[in-house]
Amino acid sequence: MLKIELNVNNETHELHVAPYSVLRDVLRDKLGLLDVKSGCGEGECGACTVLVDGKPITSCLMLAVQAQNKKIITLKGLAQDPRMRKLQEKFIEHGAVQCGYCTPGMLLAAKALLDCQPDPTEEEVRLALSGNICRCTGYQQIVEAIMDSAKELREACI
Q: CA 124 to CA 143: how far, in whole Å?
């Protein structure tokens, strides 16, 4: 076992993990962060997406030891963020949430995009979501929700 220190949702955690432990499993099993979903385990579905130093990362492909000295944010860590609340409202308004399994990863990918590009094109939104699979909505509602959210966030300067 290795002793590591992780900064997750602005809290520091000292943990003992196996050298081969992936970040997703540490976040879920050791820290109880069930907003990090366990999907394919191969980096294909995006359900386990977290922000690492502001970039969306599939946590099933990152070793926990690689996350030391980095800032890890899950959806739960953005609960009080007004920009994230706007995104969530727009997902609901546009019917972009159905079963909800992909939603945390989609929201984090969208937030990372809007943090870098506050006025994205539809093509940029689709590219930002390309690492996330949704089996329910067909993506159009998700894209519309992000585009609408971006517009309102720009107008409100949140």
A: 10
